[in-house]
Amino acid sequence: MTKQVILTGIRANNDLHIGNYFGAMLPIIDMAKTRSDEFDINLFIPDLHSFTTPIDHSTLNESIMNNARVFVAAGLPLDNDAIHLYRQSYVPAHSELTWIADCFTGMGEMGRMIQYKEKSYKSGEDQVSVGLFNYPVLMACDILLYNAAYVPVGDDQTQHLEFTRDIAERMNNRFGEVFTVPEPVVRQHAFFGKDQGLRIKDLLDPSKKMSKSDETGKGVIFLSDDPEVARKKIMGATTDDKANIQYDKVNQPGIANLIDILALLRNTSPLEVEAEFKGSQRYGDFKQVVADEMAEFLRSFQERLQSVDDQLILHKLETSEAAMNDVANSTLLRVQRAIGLRA
Ligand code: TRP
C-alpha cells in the first residue's frame, strides 16, 4: 500500500519575512513532522514559477538554495525519509506534463483566474508573459504528477486548486483514470484544521497584511534584517491613542498585531500575552519588550542559518529528486499512453 501524499510548494524568489515564517513555513514544517508517519510529504521549491514576472536572474540560483537553507534553519529535518525536498526544475516531467495539460485547458478558464486578472490589470495584457497566464496549469501538474491528495495552500491559491481538480477530472473522463483528483477545498480545510494563513499585519498600516511588496520595507520585518533595524521597525509601529493595551483587532489593530507577533515569538497565545500586559498604558514599554524578543529571535535564527550545512542539503535534494523523478515519470508515461503518444 503506498501512502497518500501531502504536497506543497513555497516560492523561491521571495525575500522571506516574519509573516511567511510564522504564517506559512512553521506550520508546514510542523505538519511535515507530525504527519510523516502516515503520509508522504512532498515539499518542493517551485523554481520554474519564479520568473512568471520579471526577476533578477543573477541571484536566482542562490535564492533557490537559500530557500532550502531557510527551511532547514527553521527546523525541517533532513533525515526523515518520508519527507521529500526537491527543486521543481530538477524533475523535467513538470514542464512536459504542463505542455500536454495546456492543450486541454481553455483560454477562458485561465483568463478568469483572479491572480492573473489582478496582475495583468496592473501591467496591461501585453506586458505580462504567457507563463503568468498559464502558470495555474504548471501548478496543477506539480500536484497531479505525484497523485497528491492534500495540498495546504493559502486562500489566494484556492482557485488554482479547484482548477487542478477540474483538469484532472476532465482528462480522467476522457482518457480513463490517469490522475488522482486532489481532495476538494472544504476537505483540505477540515484536514489541516486551522484557518490557513494566520496573517501578520504590516507594522505601519495594520489594515493590510505584511507583504514583501511594501515599497518602504519599514512595515515589514525580513528574516535577513539586522536585529537592530528590526528593533527600530517595531518601535516605529503604528498604534493608536487609546493608551490601553488590549487584544482588540477591530479598534486597535496595531496593538493587536504586536500582541500576535509577541505570541508567535513566544509560541503562546495572544490571550496569554494580553493578560500579561492588559491595562498598561505605556505602549513604549510594551514595544520595547516586543522589539527585544524580535531582535533576539532574528539573531538566533540568523546564527542557525549561518551554520546550516549546504552539503547535507544538496545530498537531501539529490536523493529526493531521484525518487521524485521515478514517481513523476510514471505518471507522465501513464498520460502519454492514454493520449496516444506511447504504445
Ligand atoms: N502557487 C503557489 C504560491 O504562489 C506555489 C505553488 C506552486 C504551489 N506550485 C504549487 C503550491 C503546487 C501548492 C502546490 O504560493
Task: Give me a quick take on this structure.
Its EC number is 6.1.1.2. Helices cover 53% and strands 5% of the residues.
What are the defining features of this structure?
343 residues; mainly alpha; Rossmann fold; Tyrosyl-Transfer RNA Synthetase; 3-stranded parallel sheet; 14 helices; 3 strands; 53% helix; binds tryptophan
Please explain how this structure is put together.
Helices cover 53% and strands 5% of the residues. The protein has 14 helices and 3 strands. It is mainly alpha-helical and 343 residues long. The mean pLDDT is 93. The chain has 2 domains: 4-196 and 309-339, Rossmann fold, CATH 3.40.50; 227-305, Orthogonal Bundle (Tyrosyl-Transfer RNA Synthetase), CATH 1.10.240. The relative contact order is 0.13. A 3-stranded parallel beta sheet has the order 1-2-3. The structure holds tryptophan.
Q: What is the CATH fold-level name of the largest domain? A: Rossmann fold
Helix amount: 40-55%
Q: What sort of overall outline do the alpha carbons produce when their principal axes are compared?
A: globular
Rg over CA atoms: 22 Å
Unique ligands: tryptophan
Strand % is: under 5%
Strand order across the largest sheet: 1-2-3
Q: Poorly predicted ranges (pLDDT <50, ≥5 residues)?
A: none
Taking the sheet with the most strands, its summary is: 3 strands, parallel
Under the CATH scheme, the architecture of the largest domain is 3-Layer(aba) Sandwich
Termini Cα gap: 27 Å
Number of helices: 14
Mean pLDDT: 93
Tell me the series of helices and strands, N- to C-terminal. EHEHEHHHHHHHHHHHH
GO molecular function: ATP binding; tryptophan-tRNA ligase activity
Enzyme class: ligase
GO biological process, one term: tryptophanyl-tRNA aminoacylation
Family: Belongs to the class-I aminoacyl-tRNA synthetase family.
